Amino acid sequence: MSQEKKSAPPEAGKEFDRRAFFAKLGLGSLSIAAAGTAAFAYQFLSPNVLFEPSPIVNAGKPENYAADSVTLDVNSGIYLVHAQEGFFALSAVCTHLGCLTAWKPELGIIACPCHGSKFNRDGQKIEGPAPKPLPWLQTWVSDEGDLMVDRSITIRPMQFVRV
Amino acid sequence: MSLAKTITNYFEELRGTRVWRSVFRSGTGSSTLHRALAVQQNVFLHLFSTKVRTRMLSFSATWYLGTLTFGTFLILVSTGIPLMFYYHPSVPQAYADTKDLQFVVSSGSFLRNLHRWSAHAMVFLVFAHMFKVFYRGAYRPPREFNWVIGVILLLITLLLSYTGYLLPWDQLAFWAITVGSNIASAVPVLGNKVHFLMLGGNMVNANALLRFYVLHCMILPLVAMLFVAIHFWRIRKDGGLYAHQSEPRTVAAQSVAAAAKGVQ
Q: What's the complex ipTM?
C-alpha cells in the first residue's frame, strides 16, 4: 500500500478531478432519482383499476322503441334511434366539452344546454361550437334479441341495424 | 396614577420578565431600535421591512388590495378547516353533507356562506390587485420577479376556486368539472393524459372528487402559503411597497431637490 502511494504521488490537478468526479456522480444519481420519482409519481397517480360503468350497454328489446323515435338514456349517455332504415345508437355526449345533450321533439333536433350546439337526428352538426358531429356507436342485436351498444367503439355513420 | 398608566406599567413589567424575554428578545422600551427589532426578530413579521415610508402605506398607493386579498385567504383557511369536520369527500355522502352543513349543523350555513363569499371576493381582489399593479407600473424592475410570483398566485387562486367548485357534488359541480376537465383535454398531445390524471379516471367520479378534495384542502393551500411568503418577502427585497412618483410628499421632496440643484 505504502509502495503504491509512493509510486503515484498526488498531483495538483488530481484532487480536483476526484472532486469533479464525485460531483458528477452525485448530480447524476440525483437526476436518475428525480426521473425515477417522476415516473413513480405518474404511475402512482394513474389508477390501474377503474370502477366505472361498462362501455357496453344493454338497451333492451327493439320492440320497446316506437318507429321514428329518438330515446335518450340519461345514465349511459346514448340516444337509441329507431329510423325508417333501422336502429342506430348515437352518443349523447356533446363533442364540444362533454355536456349531455337533449332531444327536442318539437324541433326535431338534438341541442346541448351548455353552449348551444345543435345536431340533427343523425348526429350531423347544425350549428354551435361543437367541432365534430355526434359519433355513431357500435350497435348489434344480442343472442337474446336485445339491442346492445358499445360506447367505446365509434362507427361510420349510416350503418343501421335491421331487426 | 391613572388606570391606563397602571396597565402600561404592568405591561412594561411583563415585557421585562425572563419568560417574556425568552419569547420576544427585543425587551422593554419603545425606541426605534426596539421597534425595529420587534419586527426583525418575529418569524411572521421578519418578511416585512422594519421601516416603511408613510406614503407607501397611503390608501392611494395600493388601495390595500394585496392585504385585502391575504385577508380573504385567512378567512378561507379559518372557515374551510371547520367545514372539513362535517364533509366526507365520497360520492354517497358529499352532497348530503353539504346540505347538512347548510341546514343541520349549527352555524354551518354561516361558515359555508362565508367561505363561498370570501372565495368570490378573493378572485375579485386578486384581479383588482393585478390591475392596480399593472396600471401603476409597479411590475417594472426591480419588481418584475414579484409580478411573476403574483401570476403564479393568481393561477393558484383560480385552481383553488375550481377544485372547490366540485366538492358540493351537485349538478352544477358535476357539469362544471366535466366541462373544465374537457378543456384540459384540448391540450395538444398530452391532453387526454392530463384529463385522465386530473380525474383519476375517464369521467367525473369518486376518484375525481377525492383528488379535487386533496388538492383543494391540502396541496393548493400549502403551495399558496409558500408563494405568499415569497411574495411578501420580495416586497422588502425589491425596495418596499411601490409608491407612485406622483405621491404628494415625493413630488414636494423632488421639487425641493431639483430647485437646490438648479441654484447650484
A: 0.81
